[in-house]
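Input/output pair, single chain:
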Amino acid sequence: MIVVTTSAADGDLEDAFDHYEAVRAGLGDEFLTEFRHAVERILEHPNAWQKMNERNRRCQLRRFPYGVMYQVEEAANQIVIKAVMHMHRDPQRWYR
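Output:
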């Protein structure tokens, strides 16, 4: 399977990176590494993570309070990452 990110998810990643870099130099890179690990877990077991609705799932990062919202598109052989959200925000936000 291949991984595709939406422009919204790319923006989420950039915002989180900028936030963590402002906290401490290098922390943004650590966040991106943790995000990549979550994507690897999703690729290994795409249907193992919590369902948010009928088509979408969420895989939580281990070190940071973020979740990767994604959809498995079996026919296209891809994972579509729709959002990377802070877990203390309204989970319905990413639907909009």
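Residues 27-44 form the longest helix (18 residues). Residues 17 and 28 are 4 Å apart (CA to CA).
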